[in-house]
Amino acid sequence: MKLNSILATDCGSTTTKAILIENIEGEYRLTVRGEAPTTVEAPFEDVTKGVLNAVMEVEELAGRKLLDGDNIMSPQKDGVGVDIYISTSSAGGGLQMMVAGAVKSMTGESAERAALSAGSIVMDVIASNDGRLPHEKIKRIRQLRPDMILLAGGTDGGTVSHVVELAEILRAANPKPRLGQNYKLPVIYAGNTKAQKQIQEVLGDIVDLDMVENIRPTLEGENLGPSRDKVHDLFMEHVMAQAPGYKKLMSWTDAPIMPTPGAVGSLIEMIAKEQDISVVGVDIGGATTDIFSVFSGKFNRTVSANLGMSYSVCNVLAEAGLDNVLRWVPLDIDRKELTNRIGNKMIRPTTVPQSLEELIIEQAIAREALRLSFEQHKAFAVALKGVQTTRTISDAFEQSGSGQSLVNMMELDLLVGSGGVLSHAPRRAQSARMMIDAFQPEGITQLAVDSIFMMPQLGVLANIDKESLSKEARKAALEVFHKDCLIRLGTCIAPVGKTKSKALILTADLTFTDGTSKTIQLREGDFIQMDAPHEPIKAKLTPAKKMDIGGGVGEIIQTEIYGGVTGLVFDGRGRPLDIPTDQGKRLELLRKWSEAVSEYPDVKAIEVSI
Amino acid sequence: MAHAYTPGLKVLHQSEVEKNRRLPIKGEVLKEQGDNVLPNDIVAKTDLPGNVQMVKVSNLLNIGPGDIHDAMIVKNGVAISKGQIIAEMAGLFGLFKSDVKSPIDGTLESVSDVTGVAVLREAPIPVEVDAYMSGSVKEIIPEEGVVIGAKAAFIQGIFGIGGESRGEIVIVSSSRDDEIKPEMITTEHEGKIIVGGSFISLEAYQKARAMKVAGVVVGGFNYFDLEALLGYTLGVAITGTESLGTSLVLTEGYGKIQMSDRTFSLLKEHENHFASINGATQIRAGVIRPEIVIPLDENQISDDIQFESQEIGIDAGSLVRIIRAPYFGKIGKVTRLPSDLEKMESETMVRVAEIEVDGEILKVPRSNLEMLETN
Hints:
- The complex is a heterodimer of chains A (610) and B (375).
- Chain A has 610 residues and is α/β, with parallel strands linked by helices.
- Chain A has three domains: 5-91, ATPase, nucleotide binding domain (Nucleotidyltransferase, domain 5, 2-Layer Sandwich), CATH 3.30.420; 94-249, 3-Layer(aba) Sandwich (Rossmann fold); 289-386 and 401-609, no CATH class.
- Helices cover 36% and strands 26% of the residues of chain A.
- Chain A has helices at residues 47-62, 104-117, 134-144, 161-173, 196-203, 225-242, 246-252, 260-275, 313-320, 322-326, 335-347, 356-380, 420-423, 428-439, 455-461, 467-485, 583-596, 603-609; strands at 5-11, 15-24, 27-37, 67-68, 71-72, 84-89, 95-101, 120-127, 148-151, 186-189, 208-211, 258-259, 279-284, 289-295, 298-304, 414-418, 443-450, 486-494, 504-511, 517-523, 527-543, 557-571.
- A ten-stranded mixed sheet of chain A has the order 15-14-13-16-17-18-22-21-19-20. A five-stranded mixed sheet of chain A has the order 3-2-1-6-12, with helices on both faces. Chain A has a five-stranded parallel sheet with strand order 8-7-9-10-11, sandwiched between helices.
- In chain A, helix 3 crosses helix 4 (161-173).
- The radius of gyration of chain A is 25 Å and the shape is globular.
- The N and C termini of chain A lie far apart (63 Å).
- With 375 residues, chain B is mainly beta.
- Chain B has three domains: 8-45 and 148-300, Glucose Oxidase, domain 1 (3-Layer(bba) Sandwich), CATH 3.50.30; 52-122, CATH 2.40.50; 311-374, SH3 type barrels (Roll).
- Chain B has five helices and 32 strands.
- Chain B has helices spanning 57-61, 68-71, 202-210, 226-230, 261-269; strands spanning 4-5, 8-22, 28-29, 36-37, 42-48, 52-56, 79-80, 85-89, 98-101, 106-111, 117-122, 125-130, 135-141, 145-156, 159-161, 163-171, 179-180, 193-195, 199-200, 215-221, 238-239, 247-254, 274-279, 281-282, 291-295, 313-314, 319-322, 331-336, 341-343, 349-357, 360-365, 369-374.
- In chain B, the strands form seven sheets. Chain B has a 17-stranded mixed sheet that branches. A four-stranded antiparallel sheet of chain B has the order 6-11-10-7.
- In chain B, strand 10 and strand 11 (117-122) form a beta hairpin.
- The two termini of chain B are 22 Å apart.
- The model of chain B is unreliable at 1-6 and 307-311 (pLDDT under 50).
- The interface between A and B is large, with 62 and 53 residues.
């Protein structure tokens, strides 16, 4: 079925964002967006009010009628109304879950992965071997008040007693749901199928218990799908149904409301699959930083709950350390004064940097928040632990165990950034620098930012199940993603390997679509930016003897690369990036890198401050 | 007329203050609608289920989990005392008996023949909720608590720690620019709420704690000194449960910042009056700001003042505080709200407000302003 128009909203904790997608001459394009404050909390306590306000703004900007009183008109008829209305939500703190598993690094981790990929925040992982005594676990569960619990444990036919013990702990704690006192807490059991009867006996009368297939039926395999789907169902049936106005909102939508990060994750997974590429997506918000990745076809998501740019900005400072933040600041700043300033940003989170100095500090903190979140992601996005592998004598020298990180920066094809500090940086070069410095991509990596963060809406659009709509909705989501959602920054080219200072590490022969050509010679320590549009550029990349640009050490690569608003960035600074501790040398280098990409407007001002 | 939404902190001479006083779980409400209450009056109480101990009986007796019921000599739901034998197993020929003693006073809650564990629960923990401030019961929340209402002077701070406290207000610094120094705090201030100007150092605050001062209300404190008080680096501004003895309410922020004139004058006006303060902060969905509530006597209530200030935006003429560098802490009057976006020094494009501060006009992003809500 051809769709003429699609209206999609994302109800965030502070803002509700609406977008209108229209079919213009056979092509799906984003035409209008509107936003309004979210109205989940007092005095309104009805999420639909904020949705209607955001849609009204869309109506005004689009110059056509979408609402009939408090109803979204559907389907579109004579230019009035829309064919589909869908929504995501992270209002009211999103979906907060607790998970439990028999062994922390095995079923515990699988349960955590399922909960995260469904779009939830994992408040704690309780496991038989987590080092806490039973009464400590009980105390913790009582404090938490999650929206939902996912209980796993044991492979099929494996341990029964451990998982029943966890259920007994849950029973003793008798956890209460976060929202509302008048319903039972939803608990999903996704453990050893042999223990289902006992679990029912222990928990059946005190919680709302659902049984799904085992999340870890064997040591070698995970089965996250059934648990993830059940989390989505229960999110709708129980959690959202408790939030003010959601029953009404659910009756309006043509597909189930998805938790915002769940929708983003599914879109990223789809893009990676469609183009057969490795992708990392990051959303850095005020309170949390979400990272999504697809490497070797495996999807992972992590939420760094307290690494954000406003509400939790002091936690970035605490976790990274002041020195690590200051190493990115090309200014001499009083340390105590700086901590008070950052503290004031935490208690007044909605402020924006007015002075250049404030902007530089904020972007330095962002680099550290991104770096720490990505470290957490790399530690979590690993191959299954506990898997038995057959080793030959040749493996004996390579002591790789199970549970190695799936994240391989040399394999990464596309890095997408979103969130205020990346999407709204005054200069796109600043976003590119923050992403390159924090993630340190290797080889050839495309960089992009989601300009207005419409990935949530596109994610839910791509996930419509209704058979008559799903194919066309998916097509629309992909078309808008490629044409309107991403701002292509360009490509980072970073050779990796050991070499001497100032030695030639890469020669890049580039041929542009207009037939012109250019050669770049990159030396160790160089940081070079070159303007280039988002068009295919033929590139022959010749690394020096001990250097690797993606094809192996010393191997030449012939490929197509793309520029963008910040063009091509040749990064010869090495991996891991080493910043001198000597103040003078550090400031000189920072200034040089900054000038290379025209990062800040008034470099002279920075020089004066130094 | 241009208008902009800017969240503000309240500094109200007179307001209708309402406080929900709720139990964490359902319980008994002890007051009735219309009752007059004092801050220390208990308005609701309940019993929290006691802590749980899980005893691995089967392991201790060296039996299979399935045999646990045979070994238990206490029935579910029965009261037990510490040291009492709850399970035993006769050894070979009735000799070498082994037993399991209760580690707590409480009740036996359940026994599992799958895991061989006995669940023991300690005695319930009584929980009481007091009225927090003087006033009357406006509403009963059945089985949960009450809503207390009072006409009061009401001041919101920006950050606080230490939770609820109460006492008489004493102004210790001579002006809103002055710091509270350690030597200003004496034994006379025990149980009082001391008010200062721009700053309190860690040393002076520790002196206040030592003198058992009930609370400190001041312009600023150093962020990096919080760690010494809390024992951890405060990463997210969610506070109020710290056991410090002396609650701390900052009216302006971190650093040395003079207390706003209106806040200082209002507190001075109420010197020697009894106030309830809450050093609790939550800067997320469901914002909680620290507060100072000074219930008013009949003779202090004026009919001329509007109780509820429903303003939610700034207009030309509004009094605002600038809350970010380079003009952090300055207070001025809005003269104009241009509608077009303007480029700041940072190149950020924002909607600005023009503010008159000490005769000078400053352009400031609207999101860097805080409205001073006053009456």
